[in-house]
Amino acid sequence: MRLKTSLLKEPKHILFFLNLLKHKELVSCVGWTTADELYSCSDDHQIMKWNLLTSETTRVVKLPDDIYPIDLHWFPRSIGGKKQSHAESFVLTSSDGKFHLISKLGRVEKSVEAHCGAVLAGRWNYEGTALVTVGEDGQVKIWSKNGMLRSTLAQQGTPVYSVAWGPDSEKVLYTSGKHLIIKPLQPNAKILQWKAHDGLILKTDWNSVNDLILSAGEDCKYKVWDSYGRLLYSSQPHEYPITSVAWAVDGELFAVGSFHTLRLCDKTGWSYALEKPNTGSIFNIAWSIDGTQLAGACGNGHVIFAHVVEQRWEWKNFEITLIKRRTMEVHNVINDAVDVLEFRDRVIKASLNYGHLVVSTSLQCYVFSTKNWNTPLIFDLKEGTVSLILQAERHFLLVDGGGLYLYSYEGRLISSPKFPGMRTDILNAQTLSLSNDTLAVKDKADEKVIYIFEALSGKPLGDGKPLSHKTEIVEIALDQKGLTSERKIAFIDKNRDLYITSVKRFGKEQKIVKIGTMVQTLAWNDTSNILCGIQDTRFTVWYYPNTVYVDKDLLPKTLHEKDASEFSKNPQIVHFVGNKVTIRRADGTLIHLNISPYPAILHEYVSSSKWEDAVRLCRFVEDQTMWACLAAMAVANKDMATAEIAYASIGEIDKVQYINSIKDLPSKESRMAHILLLSGNTQEAETLLLQTGLVYQAIQVNINLYNWDRALELAVKHKTHVDTVLAYRQKFLEDFGKKETNKRYLQYAEGVSIPQN
């Protein structure tokens, strides 16, 4: 990936005097109105409009000579799909201590005295309900959208050079010398402050999608932080101070500006491309709404434009590159065939998976099959700016400012799921997951909640209640194969613990089970329900995660672990296709790992109920992990003959004996109940026995598990075998040389009946 930059031969921001002298002035700020229209302000007091489609540049307005612009920010265009009336105006801060609300036509609607000294930055919140300004006087002020002062958030002795809103518009991030400060709007709330640089911090930005913070300083470094102030990346010192940083809207990329320097970086910090344009210092960077291009305000009077090109997508034997804004090149590495795909408009987003390439341009969506690149399916888009494409085997999801849209690969709209307070502008691949029958969305308002939808209808799954966890959730992922009733979701919470649970609920509370700790990243396999993740210093593969519901003690035996120290700090799993895992290191290097192909074959045999083939495969491979997986799979599918062979092969003799005892049981219901007991589902086993009238067996199960109170409760309730329970209890106490202390047992032993609650 790289930047394709363009500069005009002559700077457009030039002041003409009567004697026709040209005078170059620095451009201080830039801002996009649409994906193709940009406004720029300069020390020559002019506001210019740049149209990238027609390559025209026009002067919007000439400001009074005492107004030197410093910062510009457009009013948010759309909130939750609704267009705002104020989208046609912007705020301009200036050196005279005022901020100005200016219409798109250049009319100054309002000028407000805001600070003593220059107003160094001004930013609208995401809803457009409030404006924050910072100045040389060290004050941070919050204003209403009409320019009325609401509060002075902070006062300090040093100028505040940059400010940014938190993703929920409830917190403000601002600079204070070498420190960064996050201050909530609520009074008396805890303030977070940390030393971020060794020099003055000049710029900061906070992304609403990934919740990460950028900072740039006079120490010639740029840094990436999480919202708790933990350092994720620090660059090497550059030659000159870093004068600007800015996140792309989707949070996948950011740009860095310095003297004669423009750099494109991944969200984790490493650099994709470095350009050395003749610009002077780049004081301000703004990304277009669709994230395909950026503009920079340059010290020598230029406005630099840069387009992101040479993005790459890989899947199996195909490699696709965006070679121009409207052209893709498809390379089949097996036969070296090359296809060129031309589009009418510029490409905004693309995704390659499950044998299909989905491309969204500014107006249309193209769906290509990897078997035929010549005849794509094309349909028009409602909103235009697609921010995310997710694919499953049968369909794909488009996310834009208006909502979530699920389409089949034939281009038919299947559903459009919604939930209260949904904000599609902050969703990404970590907070959204799609499978053939299910869609999961992590809520931003309450980060402990996951909304789960039926893909085909777009309605909430089951009883309509979302999945709730005790801690904030960071990343979610649905498994891709198997029956709908067995669909599982894995998620990582704030403590970096990995949990798994079933998405289907039948009126009962979900069982959320922890299967890993210190997990940084995870991915499900595309063809079988195998999960991989990096936990602490180990790369771990859970060959059959469902084991936790079948035989929890068996789970460690179904894992494959490998030392992950070679992946360095903060690696990310990019793909898990077939038996190949692709991992990106913190420095941007891609590492490819191969795992054993046999567990995937075992999954295939079991899903087709080919138990003999599965046993034969395990005997051929002679691996304990495979036998452990087969044992769990067999118990889950109630195939006791295979389970017996598998348990015997891993030396679990007690379970082999138990399975043999199950085989001798007279009734089918009794056998089923004891299989449930083997899986640890005591409650379900007892319910099944009671439903089929096997009360004594239900009592016996509780006696065997030493659930004495429950055993007595059942005996009394059904008025049977009370004496048997008392006898077992007596023998149990005698074996341990203890005396009876339980009041209920003492009363029944005396033959005294007590009332039931």
Automatic annotation (TrEMBL):
WD repeat copies, ranges: 112-144, 194-226
Protein name: Intraflagellar transport protein 80 homolog
GO biological process: cilium assembly
UniProt lineage: Eukaryota, Metazoa, Chordata, Craniata, Vertebrata
Domain IFT80 second beta-propeller: 310-598
Assembly and interaction partners: Component of the IFT complex B, at least composed of IFT20, IFT22, IFT25, IFT27, IFT46, IFT52, TRAF3IP1/IFT54, IFT57, IFT74, IFT80, IFT81, and IFT88. Interacts with IFT88. Interacts with IFT57 and IFT70B.
One GO cellular component, as annotated: centrosome
InterPro entries recorded: Beta-prop_IFT80_2nd, TPR_IFT80_172_dom, WD40/YVTN_repeat-like_dom_sf, WD40_repeat_dom_sf, WD40_rpt
Primary location: cytoplasm
Boundaries of every IFT80/172/WDR35 TPR domain copy: 626-754
The entry's keywords: Cell projection, Cilium, Cytoplasm, Cytoskeleton, Repeat, WD repeat
Its biological purpose: Component of the intraflagellar transport (IFT) complex B, which is essential for the development and maintenance of motile and sensory cilia.
Compartment annotation: Cytoplasm, Cytoskeleton, Cilium axoneme; Cytoplasm, Cytoskeleton, Cilium basal body
PANTHER family named among the record's database cross-references: INTRAFLAGELLAR TRANSPORT PROTEIN 80 HOMOLOG (PTHR24098:SF11), OUTER SEGMENT 5 (PTHR24098)
